[in-house]
Write a structure and sequence with these properties.
The protein has helices at residues 64-72, 86-95, 129-134, 202-216, 250-272, 311-314, 341-348, 365-368, 439-456; strands at residues 39-46, 74-76, 79-80, 120-121, 139-143, 163-166, 186-188, 191-194, 222-231, 279-285, 318-321, 330-332, 336-337, 381-385, 388-394, 397-400, 403-407, 414-417, 420-423, 457-458, 461-462, 470-471. The chain has 482 residues and is an alpha/beta fold. The chain folds into two domains: 39-368, 3-Layer(aba) Sandwich (Alkaline Phosphatase, subunit A), CATH 3.40.720.10; 381-461, Arylsulfatase, C-terminal domain (2-Layer Sandwich), CATH 3.30.1120. Helix 1 packs across helix 5 (250-272) and helix 4 runs parallel beside helix 5. The radius of gyration is 21 Å and the shape is globular. 53% of the residues are buried. Bound molecules: calcium ion (CA). Residues 46-47, 86, 286-287 line the site of calcium ion.
Length: 482
């Protein structure tokens, strides 16, 4: 693994400006309207489970706005986050790469995600979705939870975002004894504007900021990345007074219902500003609902919990809506992932992903457009738990790899684990192990796993094509400057 203590500001973006054929979507506009590039909005919830919203089967949470979004768009039932935890997952979404590719698969030994004042962050030379789009003339905003480094060289403003508002890491990382963590900082661009921030107002404030950004940029292409803090990692998620105590599922349900309100407000703003038909909205989650006793979030019908390589940990609800371009009321059951957003958005914006490095994601335009016969671009999808490759999916089959020492927690404790093979098309809940019945399939998936080990690495084994994360020598806390 190549580590570097230096990062270089002189960035050579080999993005080019050549116009790409918009083969899957025609952007022909209404008579009288000028040709414009589409706007993009990614609404990313934190730890929201597969079964936490109505259109994915929840009967506990009232999510009429998200459900309407699904009726007006396409549901993706086999959409994956690349990790069961925040930092690696977000690194993938931003770069279109597996977490191990960009060395963001863990913070350090025993730590899956970055903590405040960490010396590590997404390497400034990595090219984010925001940078790809900014080069195409987009106004770009990140509003919410960043979690890819809280040091100045790693902030959203250094990764292609014109505007940032949010907490740079998890909102459960509040000041605590024995840590040099500052009071929970709400940042605007590179300044702390409030600390500790009132967490009950986060969803509302983020929503208002997103709408303000839409209004301010309605006449030019924009990209908003809206990684909400909720429901998140606190034992009792936060909601504003209007939603607090109102759901049938405690604080978790309250926060989900406020996220639904937020989604409705944003879609309404697009409609009122006549931007509906020129805006692609993607709604998803960074990983599955974590284990709680008693349970709060729900991943059903998927098995397992967030923070793991179970389907419940990494398969997340996803809805994409773009009236006239994405089929209304449709369901896509092909495997695709959060890594696909960068290549797909790049093409839709008339460009392409960086060509000087490996990008793992694919252009899934044909799936989004509901093209007849369009299939998943993935030969295999790899599930990593921190450093360890634990499972592989190819087509309908998911193999949990046989491991002499399978990591079972973040401390690196392990136990031997035999191969488990599931047919996800017939058995979404991973209930019947078919490993002994289909040795041929096991063999094929083991070979695919070996390909990943060579390329991306595994425990104690660097991959041939990993890239370094960024590091600083003297990390400082984010505190108010005045
Ligand atoms: Ca998360």
């Amino acid at each position: 693994m190549r580590h570097t203590r230096r990062w270089f500001i002189n960035r050579t973006l080999k993005l080019g400006t050549a116009g790409f054929a918009l083969s899957h979507f025609s952007i022909a506009s209404k008579a009288g309207q000028r040709f414009t590039k589409p706007n993009f909005i990614i609404i990313l919830c934190d730890n929201l489970g597969y079964g936490d919203i109505g259109c994915f089967g929840s009967t506990r949470h009232r999510t009429p706005n998200i459900d309407r979004m699904a009726e007006e768009g396409t549901r993706f039932t086999d959409f994956y986050a690349t990790s069961g935890v925040c930092t690696p997952s977000r690194a993938s979404l931003m770069t279109g790469c597996y977490p191990r590719r960009v060395n963001m698969h863990m913070a350090k030994a025993g730590r899956p995600v970055l903590q405040p004042v960490a010396n590590k962050g997404l390497h400034p030379e990595e090219v984010t979705i925001a940078e790809v789009l900014k080069a195409q003339g987009y106004a770009t905003a990140c509003i919410g939870k960043w979690h890819l480094g809280d040091q100045l060289p790693f902030l959203p403003t250094k990764q292609g975002f014109d505007y940032y508002l949010g907490i740079p890491y998890s909102d459960d990382m509040t000041q605590r004894p024995g840590q040099n963590w500052p009071p929970l900082p709400l940042m605007e661009n590179e300044e702390v504007i409030e600390a500790p921030v009132d967490r009950t107002l986060l969803t509302r404030r983020y929503t208002e900021a997103a709408i303000k950004f839409i209004e301010a940029n309605k006449d030019k292409p924009f990209f908003i990345y809206l990684p909400h803090a909720m429901p998140g990692s606190t034992k009792a998620p936060f909601a504003s007074e209007r939603f607090r105590g109102k759901s049938a599922n405690g604080p978790w349900g309250d926060s989900v219902e406020e996220l639904d309100w937020s989604t409705g407000k944003i879609l309404k703003a697009l409609k009122e500003l006549d931007l509906d038909e020129n805006t692609l909205v993607v709604w998803t989650s960074d990983n599955g609902a974590p284990p709680r006793n008693p349970p709060q979030g729900l991943n059903a019908p998927l098995a397992g919990w967030g923070y793991t390589c179970a389907e419940g940990g990494q398969r997340v609800p996803c809805i994409m809506r773009w009236p006239g371009r994405i089929q209304a009321g449709a369901t896509c059951r092909e495997l695709c992932t959060m890594m696909d957003l960068l290549p797909t958005f790049a093409r839709l914006a008339g460009t392409h992903p960086p060509k000087d490095r490996i990008i793992d994601g694919h252009d899934v335009g044909p799936l989004m457009a509901g093209k007849t016969g369009a299939t998943s671009p993935y030969e295999a999808f790899y599930y990593y738990y921190m450093e360890q490759l634990q499972a592989v999916r190819s087509g309908q089959w998911k193999l949990y790899l046989p491991l002499e020492a399978k990591w079972i927690n973040f401390r690196g404790d392990s136990k031997p684990f035999p191969a488990e093979l599931y047919d996800l098309k017939a058995d979404i809940s991973e209930s019947t192990n078919l490993a002994t019945k289909h040795p041929d399939v096991v063999k094929r998936l083991l070979a695919l796993a070996e390909k990943a080990r060579k390329d991306l690495g595994d425990v104690g084994r660097p991959g041939a094509n990993q890239r370094p994360a960024g590091y600083v020598n003297d990390p400082t806390p984010r505190i108010p400057t005045k």
